[in-house]
């Protein structure tokens, strides 16, 4: 029987997590002046997606359900974790990129 969670999978999730941090620091730290604010706001979803994928992949063995009755708890935990990460992205990171968020979107 195949092992459900191998070290190569863990390595891939760590790579995604580190790649998201590198992209974030390079684009939003060093190269921020070379891109338009609208591009930076829209592109911020890419490092967020990589970060969330890495976090969920690394936490999956600790959060995976053991039986049929705990699937609802598992779904609630995963949803809560995603909402927390999303709110950090929207309320902390995006205002640092563009203080006037509506103007950055062209509204």
Would you give an account of this structure?
- Keywords: Membrane, Transmembrane, Transmembrane helix.
- 76% of the residues lie in helices and 0% in strands.
- Helix 1 packs antiparallel against helix 3 and helix 3 packs antiparallel against helix 4.
- It is built from five helices and no strands.
- The protein has one domain.
- It starts with 6 loop residues before the first helix and ends with a helix.
- By secondary structure, it is mostly helical.
How much helix, percentage-wise, in residues? over 70%
Report strand %.
Answer: under 5%
For the termini, the CA-CA separation is: 56 Å
Number of strands: 0
- Counting structural domains, the number is 1
Which H/E pattern describes the elements?
Answer: HHHHH
Low-confidence stretches: none
Tell me about the largest β-sheet.
none
Provide keyphrases for this structure.
107 residues, mainly alpha, 0% strand, flat, membrane, transmembrane helix
In short:
The protein is mainly alpha-helical and 107 residues long. 76% of the residues lie in helices and 0% in strands.
Describe the secondary-structure layout.
Elements lengths: L6 H24 L6 H7 L1 H19 L7 H27 L3 H4 L3
Helix pairs in contact: 1-3, 3-4
């Amino acid at each position: 029987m195949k092992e459900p969670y191998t070290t190569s999978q863990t390595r891939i999730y760590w790579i995604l997590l580190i790649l998201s941090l590198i992209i974030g620091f390079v684009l939003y730290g060093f190269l921020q002046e070379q891109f338009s604010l609208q591009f930076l706001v829209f592109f911020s979803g890419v490092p967020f997606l990589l970060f969330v994928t890495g976090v969920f992949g690394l936490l999956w063995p600790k959060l995976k359900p053991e039986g049929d009755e705990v699937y609802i708890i598992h779904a609630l935990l995963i949803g809560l974790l995603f909402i927390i990460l999303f709110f950090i992205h929207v309320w902390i990171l995006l205002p640092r990129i563009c203080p006037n968020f509506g103007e950055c979107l062209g509204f």
